[in-house]
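Much of our argument rests on the idea that a fold can be written as discrete symbols. The record that follows shows the chain in one-letter code together with its fold in token form.
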Amino acid sequence: MAAEFLKIHPKNPEQRKINHVVEVLRKGGVIIYPTDTIYGIGCDLMNKKGVERLCQILQIKPQKMNLSFICNDLSHISEYATVETPIFKLLKKALPGPFTFILESSSKVPKILDANKKTVGIRIPNHQIPLMIVSSLGNPLITSSIKDDDTILEYTTDPEEIYNDFKSLVDIVIDGGAGGNVPSTVIDCTQEQLEIVRQGLGVADEYI
């Protein structure tokens, strides 16, 4: 069955549409959705069936997962990652925004994913659609970027194109308008010295 193509207003998402997406996620669904950077693909972190399907689509083994969690606020982050006070201050300044912070995972993460994950990438995007989904779901989304075969473009920005590529693999493709083609800036916070692992949209110099 082909995926649903669901248009949601990016600034004022309709709650009934968000509720519908959440219902699909709770049943182990996989969705594609916009963020403040590029379109992402994800599922409910707490749904084993969803996580297995996501790994299958991305062609990765659950033990080798290097995916990020989309959270909706800072208190949400502390459930899944160990955050020292200086790092918490940094997160408070930079989030919501176009950053992924690599943090030491809490003891909860390996139990959920059934894999020994010592670190986890955390995102709070500055975009109402994923924030409302996570808030209504009550759990983070486990997520990855949508990539393109074209190495020059690398990231697909058109939701209709994304739908054509993924309609037989996922349950819902959310159209929240054109996406960006620059990913988040990834900052490793697990060492004494913070390290920019990938320079993306976020300007880290403003915060570190």
In short: The first strand starts at residue 4 and ends at 7. The CA atoms of residues 87 and 180 lie 27 Å apart. The chain has a mean pLDDT of 91. The helical segments are 15-26, 48-58, 74-80, 85-94, 108-113, 128-137, 159-166.
